[in-house]
Design goal:
This protein is α/β, with parallel strands linked by helices. It has helices at 21-35, 62-69, 90-107, 124-132, 157-169, 216-226, 241-251, 262-270, 287-294, 307-310, 323-331, 338-349, 351-365, 380-395; strands at residues 2-6, 39-45, 55-60, 114-117, 136-142, 151-154, 182-184, 204-207, 230-233, 255-257, 274-277, 299-302, 317-320. The strands form two sheets. A seven-stranded parallel sheet has the order 3-2-1-4-5-6-7, with helices on both faces.
């Protein structure tokens, strides 16, 4: 199936650009779709790692992005185009004009074509026109607000429910009328980028935007009470808030460092005693929790939004409501099996598993019966049984069993 994937103006797509987790996930999505035999045409920025597509269409050059965004220190500070995330700056305007032209050249004789709008609100003005021409417009990884595509894929059930409530509150849809074009499929992970590590260090880890809403001070305070060092890795808010955050972390004994690349990310996650993700708002998914599982590292999370689905309480980490819960979770981290965390990530978040789900979803919206098997979500007990079978097979000299049943 030909799939037209619309990228981003402000950043190339690729695992080397993991400071922008959405671009990192978009790269993994492209790989997942290619792995399923789809023909992915990606419209993106110069510098994109094109291993995530069959055809790359450059819609903005590095000279433009450097001129517009070159001042931004994305390793230390949260990215801001100067106009926030309004996609109204010069780079996004140029990108959308070029992408519109290139897309039209490729789909005008093929109706319907499948167009994957990576960031729906950035292309909102396109969607209605494409749909009127009978094209199938999909938002494939919704972890943001304000959606408008007729076909929507949410990254968690919690975020789908949250978005439906927002739609009703803002009178965008009729109450009680969810779209039959909706689905829930998690973010994909390229498991090769996350090395499994059985042996753990003596520190807890926080990775993400270093802002109060992500619960970083909550995490640092709990670690101080538990007597466990914490490393905080990520982008600070712009000054003067950045300096104030650094001082608060220093006062709590936390060690801060700026964003890291994929190899160092895998290493620092894999050696952590526990990842802590105490987000204090409705988290759409909780990507770092899935990444922790991929490295065999347990995760302590609050249960707001998708984190309650990304982490399985008692199997791959712990759900926490209070600071006291988080202190206890840190104390109990050794009871979580790293091999089970990795197997859960392989079964639920790997490109292979997520690719199968997207393929089945695409079949349903194009009128092909995909059955009900694609709705299957692996349960930790299935994975425990599969791991036991794998050990038995290895002991008998047989080929290792799959970690979990395939999503068909």
């Amino acid at each position: 199936m030909d799939l037209h994937l619309l990228g981003m103006a402000h950043s190339p797509i690729g695992h080397e650009f993991c400071r922008d987790p959405y671009g990192d996930s978009m790269w993994a999505l492209g790989k997942a779709l290619i792995g399923e035999g789809h023909n992915v045409i990606l419209y993106g920025a110069e510098g994109t790692d094109t291993r995530c597509c069959n055809e790359f269409v450059q819609c903005i050059g590095a000279d433009t992005t450097q001129r517009i965004y070159g001042h931004a220190d994305r390793a230390r500070y949260m990215f801001d185009s100067g106009k926030g995330w309004t996609v109204a700056d010069e780079a996004w305007t140029e990108f959308k004009m070029r992408a519109a032209l290139e897309l039209e050249l490729r789909i005008r004789h093929t109706v319907p074509s499948v167009v994957l709008c990576s960031i729906g609100w950035a292309f909102e003005d396109w969607m209605a026109r494409l749909s009127e021409k009978k094209h199938l417009v999909v938002e494939p990884m919704i972890g943001y607000g304000k959606t408008s595509a007729p076909f929507r894929v949410f990254t968690s059930k919690a975020w789908r429910h949250y978005t439906m409530a927002e739609d009703v509150a803002n009178k965008r849809v009729n109450p009680g009328s969810p779209s039959k074009g909706d689905a829930v499929i998690p973010y994909p992970l390229d498991m090769d980028l996350f090395e499994f590590q059985q042996e753990k260090g003596d520190y807890a880890l926080f990775i993400g935007r270093v802002i109060p809403a992500k619960g970083v001070l909550f995490a640092a305070s709990a670690c101080k009470k538990a007597g466990i060092p914490i490393k905080v890795v990520g982008q600070l808010p712009p000054e003067p808030d950045g300096a104030n955050m650094r001082k608060q972390l220093d006062d709590l004994g936390a060690e801060w460092q700026q964003s890291v690349g994929p190899k160092e990310r895998s290493n620092i996650i894999g050696k952590a005693r526990m990842m802590v993700v105490p987000t204090i708002y409705c988290e759409p998914f909780g990507l770092v929790a899935a990444q922790a599982a991929a490295c065999g590292t347990p995760c302590a999370v609050t249960t707001y939004g998708g984190l309650s689905e990304t982490v399985v309480h008692g199997y791959t980490g712990y759900h926490c409501a209070t600071e006291y819960d988080l202190v206890n979770a840190l104390d109990q981290s050794g009871k979580i099996q790293p091999s089970l965390c990795r197997a859960w990530a392989e079964a639920r978040f790997s490109c292979q598993s997520v690719g199968k789900l997207h393929t089945a979803y695409l079949k349903t919206i194009t009128g092909v019966d995909a059955g009900l098997d694609w709705l299957h979500e692996p349960h930790p007990l299935e994975i425990i049984v599969a791991l036991a079978q794998r050990k038995n097979s290895a002991a008998q000299g047989d080929p290792p069993a799959s970690p979990a049943p395939e999503n068909r």
